[in-house]
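TASK: fixed-backbone design
INPUT:
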């Protein structure tokens, strides 16, 4: 079943992407990048498909910026820009 196999490969790729980690924190690298709770596009990089916040070791953020991102995501949820998990 060739088609089935292709699908499995795609699935595999996706999981690899999800656990891909950058060594350098993108916010430390790019100081112009501000974390703002209304920036949904940016925050979407730090939540998984279920709406959960990714841990810093996966997103690649340093502890300081991870904390800022987490706060921004929680605030975005409160104003309903982002959904809660589910
Ligand atoms: Zn940082």
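OUTPUT:
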């Amino acid at each position: 079943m060739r088609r089935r196999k292709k699908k499995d490969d795609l699935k595999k790729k996706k999981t690899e992407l999800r656990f891909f980690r950058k060594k350098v924190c993108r916010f430390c690298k790019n100081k112009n990048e501000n974390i703002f709770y209304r920036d949904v596009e940016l925050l979407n990089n730090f939540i998984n498909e279920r709406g959960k916040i990714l841990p810093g070791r996966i997103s690649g953020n340093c502890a300081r910026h991870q904390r800022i991102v987490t706060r921004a995501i929680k605030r975005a949820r409160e104003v309903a820009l982002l959904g809660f998990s589910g």
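COMMENT: The pocket of zinc ion is lined by residues 25, 27-28, 61-62, 64-65 (CB under 6 Å).
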